[in-house]
Predict the structure.
Amino acid sequence: MPLFETIPYKVINKDGHIEIREYENFLLASTKTDVNPRLDSGFNNVFDYISGTNDAQVKISMTTPVVTYEEEAKLVTGFYVPKKYSKASAPKPLGGRVFIHELPKAYYAVIRFSGSWKKAHFDAQDLLLQAYLKEKKIQIISLRYILRYQPPFVPPFLRRNEIAYQIEYSE
């Protein structure tokens, strides 16, 4: 049994380190901050939310992955909200730094890799995924999502990282 609840998905197709996955609707508790080279700002804002800085003053279980993406020159950092919550029942964030949003059911192309949290490392994996999708004639329809499954104290060679794009896909 995993230590943390993870965003559920179904693998539709696997080709080496690249998977086509189907995700059901899921919620993210997110914050927007300035972009930094490690693409990791905002973590503490969302951690405060799950630690009880919410209208119910309840602690929410840590989940994986931490999802980050760049939007309008800001870095959005989000934690997966456990499946037991709906958008209506999730505790409301306090302080205006965190917001709850729902990502709809969709297909994603995902590349899985280990290593450091350096922009150049993510960009190299991103190019591999994009080349694969171009070769397979699969259209990307979202921004790039970075998914990190372990905390920063885990050695880079043991970290599970992923890059994902929502795609147009039919089985």
